[in-house]
Give the backbone structure.
Amino acid sequence: MSEWRGDLGGHLALDAGGVLAAVILVVALVFVAMTVRRWLFVRGGGAVECSLRVLPMEGAPGAWRLGIGRYKGDVLHWHRVFGFRRRPRQVIHRRGLVVSNRRSPDPGEAEGLLPDVSVIEVRDGDLTVELAMGAAALTGFLAWLEAAPPGFPVDIHPPDES
Protein backbone atom coordinates (compact mmCIF):
# COMPACT_ATOMS: atom_id res chain seq x y z
CA MET A 1 0.00 0.00 0.00
CA SER A 2 2.90 2.39 0.65
CA GLU A 3 4.12 1.96 -2.95
CA TRP A 4 0.76 3.10 -4.27
CA ARG A 5 0.88 6.29 -2.20
CA GLY A 6 4.33 7.08 -3.58
CA ASP A 7 3.05 6.81 -7.15
CA LEU A 8 0.09 9.04 -6.37
CA GLY A 9 2.38 11.69 -4.83
CA GLY A 10 4.55 11.60 -7.93
CA HIS A 11 1.56 12.06 -10.24
CA LEU A 12 0.27 14.97 -8.17
CA ALA A 13 3.67 16.65 -8.27
CA LEU A 14 3.85 16.12 -12.02
CA ASP A 15 0.31 17.51 -12.45
CA ALA A 16 1.07 20.55 -10.28
CA GLY A 17 4.25 21.19 -12.27
CA GLY A 18 2.33 20.92 -15.53
CA VAL A 19 -0.34 23.32 -14.30
CA LEU A 20 2.30 25.80 -13.14
CA ALA A 21 4.08 25.58 -16.51
CA ALA A 22 0.76 26.13 -18.32
CA VAL A 23 -0.05 29.17 -16.16
CA ILE A 24 3.40 30.66 -16.81
CA LEU A 25 2.97 30.04 -20.55
CA VAL A 26 -0.46 31.71 -20.60
CA VAL A 27 0.86 34.75 -18.68
CA ALA A 28 3.79 35.05 -21.10
CA LEU A 29 1.47 34.81 -24.12
CA VAL A 30 -0.85 37.48 -22.69
CA PHE A 31 2.16 39.76 -22.08
CA VAL A 32 3.42 39.22 -25.64
CA ALA A 33 -0.06 39.83 -27.10
CA MET A 34 -0.47 43.12 -25.17
CA THR A 35 3.04 44.23 -26.16
CA VAL A 36 2.36 43.53 -29.85
CA ARG A 37 -1.05 45.29 -29.62
CA ARG A 38 0.59 48.37 -28.08
CA TRP A 39 3.33 48.34 -30.71
CA LEU A 40 0.72 48.20 -33.49
CA PHE A 41 -1.10 51.25 -32.03
CA VAL A 42 2.08 53.29 -31.62
CA ARG A 43 3.62 52.19 -34.94
CA GLY A 44 1.05 54.06 -37.03
CA GLY A 45 1.88 57.39 -35.37
CA GLY A 46 -0.46 59.85 -33.73
CA ALA A 47 -0.61 57.86 -30.49
CA VAL A 48 -0.08 59.21 -26.96
CA GLU A 49 -0.28 57.75 -23.49
CA CYS A 50 -3.16 59.22 -21.53
CA SER A 51 -5.37 58.15 -18.68
CA LEU A 52 -9.12 58.67 -18.89
CA ARG A 53 -12.04 58.70 -16.50
CA VAL A 54 -15.68 59.32 -17.24
CA LEU A 55 -17.48 62.04 -15.27
CA PRO A 56 -21.11 61.02 -14.85
CA MET A 57 -23.91 63.60 -14.72
CA GLU A 58 -24.55 62.61 -11.09
CA GLY A 59 -22.43 60.85 -8.51
CA ALA A 60 -18.75 60.30 -8.08
CA PRO A 61 -16.41 60.09 -11.07
CA GLY A 62 -15.24 56.70 -12.26
CA ALA A 63 -11.77 55.29 -11.74
CA TRP A 64 -8.78 56.39 -13.82
CA ARG A 65 -7.87 53.94 -16.58
CA LEU A 66 -4.48 53.90 -18.27
CA GLY A 67 -4.68 53.98 -22.03
CA ILE A 68 -3.45 55.09 -25.40
CA GLY A 69 -5.10 57.89 -27.35
CA ARG A 70 -4.79 57.73 -31.11
CA TYR A 71 -5.68 60.59 -33.43
CA LYS A 72 -7.59 59.56 -36.55
CA GLY A 73 -8.66 62.62 -38.50
CA ASP A 74 -11.28 64.50 -36.48
CA VAL A 75 -11.59 61.95 -33.67
CA LEU A 76 -9.45 60.74 -30.80
CA HIS A 77 -9.78 57.00 -30.24
CA TRP A 78 -8.96 55.95 -26.69
CA HIS A 79 -7.92 52.33 -26.02
CA ARG A 80 -7.16 50.67 -22.70
CA VAL A 81 -3.55 49.62 -22.28
CA PHE A 82 -4.55 46.35 -20.63
CA GLY A 83 -7.10 44.97 -23.03
CA PHE A 84 -7.47 43.05 -26.26
CA ARG A 85 -10.21 44.94 -28.09
CA ARG A 86 -9.22 46.53 -31.37
CA ARG A 87 -12.19 48.92 -31.17
CA PRO A 88 -11.70 52.00 -28.98
CA ARG A 89 -13.36 52.20 -25.55
CA GLN A 90 -14.05 55.93 -26.03
CA VAL A 91 -14.30 58.10 -29.12
CA ILE A 92 -13.89 61.86 -28.66
CA HIS A 93 -14.95 64.00 -31.62
CA ARG A 94 -13.15 67.26 -32.36
CA ARG A 95 -16.33 68.89 -33.74
CA GLY A 96 -18.17 70.59 -30.90
CA LEU A 97 -15.55 69.66 -28.33
CA VAL A 98 -15.31 71.84 -25.22
CA VAL A 99 -12.25 71.87 -22.96
CA SER A 100 -13.68 73.29 -19.77
CA ASN A 101 -11.02 72.81 -17.10
CA ARG A 102 -7.31 72.20 -16.63
CA ARG A 103 -5.73 71.26 -13.32
CA SER A 104 -3.04 69.29 -11.56
CA PRO A 105 -4.07 65.91 -10.16
CA ASP A 106 -5.17 65.79 -6.52
CA PRO A 107 -2.69 63.98 -4.24
CA GLY A 108 -5.07 61.01 -3.87
CA GLU A 109 -5.54 60.52 -7.60
CA ALA A 110 -1.88 61.17 -8.52
CA GLU A 111 -0.95 57.71 -7.23
CA GLY A 112 -2.90 56.04 -10.05
CA LEU A 113 -1.60 58.30 -12.83
CA LEU A 114 1.63 58.64 -14.75
CA PRO A 115 4.05 61.16 -13.21
CA ASP A 116 3.98 64.86 -14.17
CA VAL A 117 0.57 64.91 -15.86
CA SER A 118 -2.05 67.61 -16.21
CA VAL A 119 -5.75 66.81 -16.09
CA ILE A 120 -8.15 68.40 -18.57
CA GLU A 121 -11.92 68.11 -18.56
CA VAL A 122 -13.42 67.59 -22.00
CA ARG A 123 -17.07 67.64 -23.06
CA ASP A 124 -18.18 65.96 -26.27
CA GLY A 125 -21.96 66.25 -26.41
CA ASP A 126 -23.36 64.34 -23.43
CA LEU A 127 -20.01 62.67 -22.70
CA THR A 128 -17.78 64.39 -20.13
CA VAL A 129 -14.37 62.87 -19.44
CA GLU A 130 -11.12 63.85 -17.85
CA LEU A 131 -7.87 63.12 -19.63
CA ALA A 132 -4.56 63.00 -17.78
CA MET A 133 -1.60 63.65 -20.09
CA GLY A 134 2.04 64.59 -19.88
CA ALA A 135 3.16 68.01 -21.12
CA ALA A 136 4.08 66.85 -24.64
CA ALA A 137 0.85 64.89 -25.08
CA LEU A 138 -1.22 67.83 -23.81
CA THR A 139 0.53 70.22 -26.20
CA GLY A 140 -0.22 67.81 -29.05
CA PHE A 141 -3.87 67.50 -27.99
CA LEU A 142 -4.34 71.28 -27.87
CA ALA A 143 -2.57 71.66 -31.23
CA TRP A 144 -4.91 68.99 -32.69
CA LEU A 145 -7.89 70.99 -31.41
CA GLU A 146 -6.60 74.29 -32.77
CA ALA A 147 -5.80 72.71 -36.14
CA ALA A 148 -9.50 72.04 -36.75
CA PRO A 149 -10.71 73.09 -40.20
CA PRO A 150 -12.50 76.45 -40.47
CA GLY A 151 -16.09 76.23 -39.30
CA PHE A 152 -15.40 73.51 -36.74
CA PRO A 153 -16.86 74.63 -33.41
CA VAL A 154 -14.08 73.94 -30.89
CA ASP A 155 -14.05 75.69 -27.53
CA ILE A 156 -10.95 75.81 -25.34
CA HIS A 157 -11.36 77.52 -21.94
CA PRO A 158 -8.67 76.26 -19.61
CA PRO A 159 -8.57 78.64 -16.66
CA ASP A 160 -5.34 80.43 -15.87
CA GLU A 161 -3.23 78.37 -13.51
CA SER A 162 -1.69 80.48 -10.78
Observations:
- The radius of gyration is 23 Å.
- The first strand starts at residue 47 and ends at 54.
